[in-house]
Each structure stands twice: as structure tokens, then as C-alpha cells.
Amino acid sequence: MSWLLLATGYDAEALHRVADEQLAPRALVRHGATPDVEVGVYGLHYTATALEVSRSCPHPVLSPDMRATRG
Question: pTM of the prediction?
């Protein structure tokens, strides 16, 4: 994946309108994207409170050589 455009918001209807109009493949191609643009709309169905996050195990810091192999 060369580029990723992420649009977020609280109003699902407004995001769908933006995805259908300003972020539609034909609109992105007009702004320089290649014709093989893939568009997806996803919804977050899980949230965590600050307390829940604080109880989770921290992720280890990866060295630069490990980042290349493990992302």
C-alpha cells in the first residue's frame, strides 16, 4: 500500500456522503490517484475506557530491525 487516506468522524451519514462524493475513486483520480483506488468504509464497534486501557499489558518497544520484520 503506497498511500492511505483515513477520514474519521462521529456522524456516520456525513462520512458516507464524503466517501460517496469527495472520496469516491473518480474524485481521487481527478486529484492524482491511480485508477486502481480501493475505497472501504468501516465502523468502530468497540471502545475502551481510559481505565481499561491502563489495565492492559504494554506493548514492547520494537528495535528498528524488528520493526522491519514484524511491522
Answer: 0.53
